[in-house]
């Protein structure tokens, strides 16, 4: 038995850690429904010009990223993508959503969409603040 120096994990090493942690967690919570889900905005040629990525687990949707190309940013696509993901969450009986954003991203956008800040990390990244937001759907 020995400890390795911190290095990027190999695929099988990451999976071993993930599987061990999942087994431990589920020994306390029971089997956890997990699903990765996304939605995209594509131009006439099929090129992705926006999208949203999320994952459902422990009855929460975690929005992992939302991006809209600068050329279409004022077209309401962010709101449409976020609403689409919220509707999908509800269809899966998931009523809680969480996400994070930073001072240079979209804090006001999410607050306008009904999300509330429940935590902050100053200087993450340096010179900025990361905000953690949540929303309960159907209330």
The helix fraction, in percent, is: 25-40%
Tell me how many strands there are: 6
Lateral strand order in the biggest sheet: 1-2-3-4-6-5
Question: Termini distance?
Answer: 52 Å
Portion of residues in beta strands equals: 35-45%
Q: Could you please describe the fold and organization of this structure?
A:
The chain has 139 residues and is an alpha+beta fold. The protein has three helices and six strands. The chain is globular, with a radius of gyration of 18 Å. The termini are far apart. The relative contact order is 0.12.
Secondary structure blueprint with pairings:
Layout: H1 11-29, E1 35-42, E2 48-57, E3 60-68, H2 77-91, E4 96-102, H3 107-112, E5 116-122, E6 129-136
Parallel strand pairs: 3-4
Antiparallel strand pairs: 1-2, 2-3, 4-6, 5-6
Features:
alpha+beta; 139 residues; six-stranded mixed beta sheet; 3 helices
Question: What is this entry, summarized?
Answer:
The protein has helices at 11-29, 77-91, 107-112; strands spanning 35-42, 48-57, 60-68, 96-102, 116-122, 129-136. Helices cover 29% and strands 35% of the residues.
């Amino acid at each position: 038995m020995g400890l390795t120096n911190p290095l990027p994990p190999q695929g099988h090493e990451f999976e071993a850690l993930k599987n061990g942690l999942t087994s431990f967690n589920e020994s306390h919570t029971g089997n956890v429904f997990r699903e990765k889900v996304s939605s995209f905005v594509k131009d006439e040629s099929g090129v992705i010009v926006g999208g949203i990525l999320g994952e459902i687990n422990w009855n929460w949707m975690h929005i992992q990223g939302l991006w809209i190309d600068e050329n279409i940013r004022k077209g309401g696509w962010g709101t449409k993508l976020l609403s689409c993901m919220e509707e999908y969450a509800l269809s899966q009986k998931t009523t809680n959503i969480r996400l994070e954003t930073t001072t240079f991203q979209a804090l006001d956008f999410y607050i306008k969409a009904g999300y509330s800040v429940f935590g902050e990390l100053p200087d993450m990244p340096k010179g900025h603040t990361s905000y953690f937001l949540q929303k309960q759907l159907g209330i």
